[in-house]
Amino acid sequence: MGAVGAAITANPIGAAFAIGGAILGRIGMKKKRREEARRRERERKHALVAQRQLVGSVDAIRAEYAERAGFRREGYDLQQSQGLLNYGMDRQQADSSIGQSNLAYGGANKAREQLDMSFQNEYKGRQLEYKEGFSALERSYESDLRGVQTGLLNLQATAAQRGYKIPGVSVNTESNIGGLS
Fold it and tell me: Quick one: 152 exposed, middle or buried, by C-beta within 10 A (0-12, 13-18, 19+)?
């Protein structure tokens, strides 16, 4: 008889408790593992729902910024049209004034040049304002897309920490909403 057999023979009640404890411990551990597996599966399902919602939000973000870019383009076009209309009226009024006042040829040309220069400066100013606003719109767009990407990465990190897996998904965070039409 080995050492185990000798211990059982010497103290059968203690051996019975040890064997019973081992059996109960094994049953308890199985139950704990099943509960942990259920918890991980519940969390995984919630993470997958959150992941689908984040990915689904990208289309809404893209649509929103495409619409905002369109509004910005329309606003720019309107400003430019109004600027051209104003320039045409100012030019016509200047030509009329020059004709009525019989300005010398050099003075008339100088007045026209100043009017043209003024229009060009206004045009460039509107163009610069548009580019600046569009640049800010693109930065905001990219920031929103990066926020979605960060959320997806956080979900994956949490899944890895908590012991379950979700598929890796990424979002293209480059903006492409165009510029001047």
Answer: buried
